[in-house]
Amino acid sequence: FQVAVTVADNIRDDMIRRGMPPEKIIKLHSGFNQSFLVRQPEQASEWRKKLLLDNRQKLVVYSGGLYRFKGVNLLVDVAKELPQIQFVFAGGNESQVQSYQQLAKEKQANNVTFLGYIPHQQLPSLLQAADVLAHPHCSGEAASFTSPLKLFEYMASGTPIVATEIPPLMEFKSSSAIAGWCQPDNPAQLTRCLQQVLETYPRNVNGYAAQIEWGSQFSWENRMAKIMSNVAEYMHPIICD
């Protein structure tokens, strides 16, 4: 083979341990669709009209699977502590949505909405509608193997991001793409971080340009270009005398 591509360093290390040549294994993050870079202000405005209930003015959105290890339970706990803010979860199947709706009811978190599965073409406008996007992943084994694809979609939206400090995200710690960092599994710190980011970063209908620019490197198109640059030397024609 010419080149093997993986999305995580630990997977690359495992491939090397299994005998694959290190020089032929490259790590490249998964990429997002370019549609996430297209501004959709009208659709975003419609989302806000639909989702901001009971005169709430601030919207926190989570997009992804509805699992405890993803930090969904944690974010429901945080929502209860911030009743003046609307929390919206996009993703999950019907049974998961029903289960989490019941959990929110039991915790009396009345400012939480579970949308379930959202068609991919509607996600960019939903992410742009938010005041803050939450990436509350918990610690543990799953945190070492997760791909930050959702984080890249978040970046493309230009909406300020709050993320937990899990290993796969640490390479972005020094970038300007994440507005706030907090420890995983710490609802009090996540609550404070969300409040601080909401106060520091007013909603920008055009998105924050520095975040969009930095995140654009993780598009599928740029990913393919990087892959092709790695295999280019193998594609040169052989010239025989």
Work out the number of β strands: 8
Radius of gyration: 20 Å
Overall domain count = 2
Mean pLDDT: 90
First-last Cα distance: 26 Å
CATH architecture of the largest domain: 3-Layer(aba) Sandwich
Q: Please report the first level of CATH classification, the CATH class of the largest domain.
A: Alpha Beta
Number of helices, where a helix is a run of at least 4 consecutive DSSP H or I residues: 10
The secondary structure category is alpha/beta
Widest sheet: strand order?
5-4-3-6-7-8
Helix and strand element order: EHEHEHEHEHEHHEEHHH
* Share of helix, binned: 40-55%
The CATH topology label of the largest domain is Rossmann fold
| Spans of at least 5 consecutive residues with low confidence | none
Give the overall silhouette: globular
Strand content: 5-15%
CATH homolog superfamily of the largest domain: Glycogen Phosphorylase B
Biggest sheet layout: 6 strands, parallel
Which properties best describe this structure?
241 residues, alpha/beta, Rossmann fold, 2 domains, six-stranded parallel β-sheet, two-stranded parallel sheet, 8 strands, 42% helix, globular
Question: What does the model show?
Answer:
The protein is an alpha/beta fold and 241 residues long. The protein folds into two domains: 4-31 and 220-229, no CATH class; 34-213, Rossmann fold (3-Layer(aba) Sandwich), CATH 3.40.50. It contains ten helices and eight strands. The strands form two sheets. Strands 5-4-3-6-7-8 form a six-stranded parallel sheet, with helices on both faces. A two-stranded parallel ribbon has the order 1-2. Strand 1 (4-6), helix 1 and strand 2 form a beta-alpha-beta unit. Helix 2 (41-51) packs across helix 5 and helix 5 packs across helix 7. It is globular.
